[in-house]
Every structure is written in C-alpha cells, then in structure tokens.
C-alpha cells in the first residue's frame, strides 16, 4: 500500500474501498473480502444507507482501530450547522466507532446556500477531535474558494468524479496549488466501455495486468486517492494488486489522450437532490 499525507499531517491509504450502491445486507461480506485482501481505507456515506453493515463488519474483523481509515459524508438533507452535527453523531453510532478519520460534505447544493455553515460544523468536529480530517465532495473551484474566504480550515480532500474520460485536469491543478488532496470516485467509469478502450487493453497486455488495474495505476500515478468498488471477491483482490508495476511517461500520455470531458454523474452546481 502507498500512503499520502494530508496538509494536517494525517496519512491516508492512497487506495481505498468504495461502497456506493452496496446494500446494507450485502456490505458486511464485501467489507470482509476487502479487509482480507488488504484494504484498510473504507469509504461510505450517510446517503449509502450501509453504515450499520460496515460497522458490524469492522467490529467483527478484529483489526485494530488505528489501522483502519474510515470515511463517511453528510448528505444534502442535513445541510446546516446543527443538522450536520446531528448527522455525524448518527453516522458514528451506526459505524460503531468513537471517531471518524475523514468526514466530508457530500455535495455543495448551492441552491440551498448552506454548504458554508455545513462545513463550519465539520470544523467544529475537527477541533473537538471527533474527526481526524475534513473535506468535501463534488465541490467546484468556486465553492472551494468560498470556503477559503469564509471558513478557518482548508479542506484536506476534494472527492470528485474522475476517470479516463473525465480527467479533471484543471481541478487537479487547483487542488495541488492549494494543498488539497484530489480523490477520485467512479474511477473505472463503472466499467463498461472504458475497459474496452484499445489503448487500455494494449497497456494491459503490455504489463500483464487487467484493464481495470491499468486505470487504477494511472490514478495512483496521477497522485490521486482512489476508491474502486466491487462486490466480486476476485475483482476486490485484483483492484488492490496494483503496486507491483509502473506505467511509463508514454503510457500515462496515452491514457491522457482519452480525456473527453465526459461527466457521468450530476453537475455539482445543479445537484440539489434530497
């Protein structure tokens, strides 16, 4: 495993296990397979409705708490200072933990205009030692700049959609300039056509790896934190088996050429779903 250090000195495994769309009744098995494969960074959210299953799996694992890195997020329905503090306590209870390693604002929802006070609740939790790091998801540059102007603590992470078809080069540059770590969700474009790209398949053949492993390696070499998700035990194992090879500069340039600025998920400034 490789680790990155956030601007407050906290280290995070660069490759984690995503749990979006894994139902609560199935997530414990998936977490067990992930922990057995070597994952120690688990990403969930209030919205995923699987925190309690994850909590059970973590408790049953017997792994020391300090060896785990757990991320969760406050959903749009709980924007606002007091509502966020309430959502955090509920997540903590479901996860059966005493603290959260990373707590994120899931979407800015600018129409509600509550993301600043929501983030200020995260600052309070951080100051109280209930979270080790705080950050945001799906924030555009304008949303981040407003946090810089109105809040005290710079986000440590911005977790956004990123894959070979949507490479987020401007956001990556901005995050680097401001010491915010870039984290990729949907890193494999949820599979499908990107795994059939001739360039990706040719690189997989060259390195003796799967197309998914090539893409995950690209994310890592870009400096991104990455959280692939699977419920298939073999894929869970293969997704973490990406630390024994390196893509060349030429390989990285070939993958860079696949960028279409093709966003699959919601546009952050238009996302207001409760």
Write the element-wise H/E pattern from the N-terminal end onward: EEEHEHEHEHEHEHEHHEHH
Strand content: 15-25%
- Which architecture name does CATH use? Alpha-Beta Barrel
* Major beta sheet, strand line-up: 3-4-5-6-7-8-9-10
Query: CATH class, please?
Result: Alpha Beta
Radius of gyration: 18 Å
- The CATH homology group name: NADP-dependent oxidoreductase domain
Biggest sheet details: 8 strands, parallel
Question: Structural class of the helix and strand makeup?
Answer: alpha/beta
As residue ranges, the low-confidence spans are: none
Summed over residues and divided by their number, the pLDDT gives a mean of 97
Task: Give the quaternary arrangement of the chains.
Answer: single chain
What is the general shape? globular
Intertermini distance: 36 Å
Query: How many distinct folded domains?
Result: 1
Number of helices: 10
CATH topology: TIM Barrel
Query: What is the helix fraction of residues, given as a range?
Result: 25-40%
What is the compact description of this entry?
With 274 residues, this protein is an alpha/beta fold. The protein has 10 helices and 10 strands.
Report on the structure:
Helix 1 runs parallel beside helix 2, helix 1 (24-37) packs across helix 9 (233-240) and helix 7 packs across helix 8 (211-221). 45% of the residues are buried. The protein is of the alpha/beta class and 274 residues long. The chain has helices at 24-37, 51-61, 81-95, 115-127, 141-150, 169-177, 198-207, 211-221, 233-240, 249-256, and strands at residues 3-5, 11-13, 17-18, 41-43, 69-74, 100-105, 131-137, 157-161, 181-185, 225-226. The model has no long low-confidence stretch (mean pLDDT 97). The protein has a single domain, classed as TIM Barrel, CATH 3.20.20.
């Amino acid at each position: 495993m490789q680790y990155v250090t956030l601007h407050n000195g906290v280290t995070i495994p660069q490759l984690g296990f995503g749990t979006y769309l894994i139902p609560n009744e199935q997530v414990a098995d998936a977490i067990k397979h992930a922990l057995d494969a070597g994952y120690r960074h688990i990403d969930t959210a209030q919205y995923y409705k699987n925190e309690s299953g994850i909590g059970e799996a973590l408790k049953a694992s017997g792994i020391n708490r300090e060896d785990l890195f757990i991320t969760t997020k406050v959903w749009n329905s709980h924007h606002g200072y007091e509502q966020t503090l309430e959502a955090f306590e509920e997540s903590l209870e479901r996860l059966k933990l005493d603290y959260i390693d990373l707590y994120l604002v899931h979407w800015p929802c600018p129409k509600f205009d509550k993301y600043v006070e929501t983030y200020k609740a995260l600052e309070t939790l951080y100051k109280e030692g209930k979270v080790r790091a705080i950050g945001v998801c799906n924030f555009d540059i304008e949303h981040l700049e407003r946090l810089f102007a109105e809040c005290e603590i710079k986000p440590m992470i911005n977790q956004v959609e990123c894959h070979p078809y949507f490479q987020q080069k401007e956001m990556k540059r901005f995050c680097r300039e401001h010491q915010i770590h870039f984290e990729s969700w949907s890193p494999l474009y949820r599979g499908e056509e990107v795994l059939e790209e001739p360039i990706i398949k040719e690189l997989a053949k060259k390195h003796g790896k799967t197309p998914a492993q090539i893409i995950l390696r690209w994310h890592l070499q870009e400096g991104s934190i990455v959280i692939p998700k699977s419920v298939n035990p073999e894929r869970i194992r293969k997704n973490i088996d990406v630390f024994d090879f390196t893509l060349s500069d030429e390989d990285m340039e070939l993958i860079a050429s696949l960028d279409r600025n093709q966003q699959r998920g919601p546009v952050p400034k238009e996302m207001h779903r409760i």
